[in-house]
Amino acid sequence: MAAIPHIKLTIRRSELDGGGMYRTATVRNVELSGIAESAKKYVPDIIMHALSLAPGVEVGGNNGFTYIFPFKLS
Question: Is residue 65 within a helix (H) or strand (E), and if so which, with residue range?
Fold first, then answer.
């Protein structure tokens, strides 16, 4: 079975707004899997869009976490 294309990023630190959504996030690592070369230029926009829509967990110091979301570019 083929792997689902995904972006995996590790958030090192974040701040949330009053609604619990990400206001700022410091990304430590980004891993791309199954993404076409022509689509890689959209990766920063995809990450920002996903974080702006995802309710987040505020992270401080070195207590990072990994966030993975599958997607399909058509």
Answer: strand 65-70
Q: Return the higher-pLDDT residue of 40 and 62.
A: 40
Query: Model confidence over 2-27: pLDDT tens digits?
Result: 567 888 888 888 888 888 777 888 88
Q: How far apart, in whole angstroms, are the C-alpha atoms of residue 20 and residue 41? A: 28
Q: How far is CA 3 from CA 35, 54, 62, 64, 70, in A?
A: 11, 23, 30, 25, 10
Amino acid present at 49: H
- Note whether 61 and 27 are within 8 A (CB): no
How far, in Å, are 28, 34, 46, 49, 69 from residue 53 at the CA level? 20, 23, 11, 6, 12
Q: Is the pLDDT of residue 28 over 70?
A: yes
Residue type at 69? F
